Amino acid sequence: MTQPDLGAALDHYRDLAPRYDRRTRFIDAIRLRAIASLGLKQGEVVLDAGCGTGWAIPHLARAVGSNGRVMAFDPSPEMLSIAATRSAAAPVDLLEASAESVVLPHPADAILFSYTHDLIRSPAALANLFRQVRPGARVAATSTKLYARWLFPANWYLRATHRGYITNFEGFEAPWAVLAEMLEDFRVDTGPFTQHYVATGRVRPAVQVAK
Ligand SMILES: C[S@@+](CC[C@H](N)C(=O)[O-])C[C@H]1O[C@@H](n2cnc3c(N)ncnc32)[C@H](O)[C@@H]1O
């Protein structure tokens, strides 16, 4: 499995950061669907992995309330500086770090992966996160995937428009495949005629203790 290129991602997001929220308005609804699928409760600790400009932070904060907590990390300082301007109804820990190396200040009850294809294709990144969560932590991932193979003109378009956002297109037909091995009660909601998916599950105990 070829691995994502963090240096290329940082270059891409350095330039894109000021325009990112406007460029990605069309995914707001599916991001909300992924957040709802986490079934967050007041008082819980939720992690926004690869939070970017922090679009999800106020929504996650509302769901966990002032006695809960949002942790969010991203390796791009330019993206993170926009996340720092969001106001939220819960305490927020913002960390400049990659998923492969981040050290979480609190164990998470739930993790959101919103449009973090590179991150969920990295077993090392997922292993580092999953060993820092509470037992049975819930996970939701949403992003883009290829259409059915015979819709290849649409897939050419997808690859062309996602260059930069994604540094490694390996696994683009089923981006959730690594998660499927690490989660129990795994489900993916998608179809051949859509570029979107929402995958959910709970971290397997064996994955959680693996070093
Ligand atoms: C398409 S943006 C998604 C941002 C946000 N989650 C959203 O829904 O808008 C992808 C983000 O993943 C971050 N990223 C890329 N590689 C990463 C890694 N290895 N660990 C953590 N974040 C990473 C990028 O810096 C970027 O901010």
Automatic annotation (TrEMBL):
<keyword id="KW-0489">Methyltransferase</keyword>
<dbReference type="InterPro" id="IPR029063">
    <property type="entry name" value="SAM-dependent_MTases_sf"/>
</dbReference>
<dbReference type="GO" id="GO:0032259">
    <property type="term" value="P:methylation"/>
</dbReference>
<feature type="domain" description="Methyltransferase">
    <location>
        <begin position="46"/>
        <end position="136"/>
    </location>
</feature>
<dbReference type="GO" id="GO:0043770">
    <property type="term" value="F:demethylmenaquinone methyltransferase activity"/>
</dbReference>
<protein>
    <submittedName>
        <fullName>2-methoxy-6-polyprenyl-1,4-benzoquinol methylase, mitochondrial</fullName>
        <ecNumber>2.1.1.163</ecNumber>
    </submittedName>
</protein>
<dbReference type="InterPro" id="IPR041698">
    <property type="entry name" value="Methyltransf_25"/>
</dbReference>
<keyword id="KW-0808">Transferase</keyword>
<dbReference type="Pfam" id="PF13649">
    <property type="entry name" value="Methyltransf_25"/>
</dbReference>
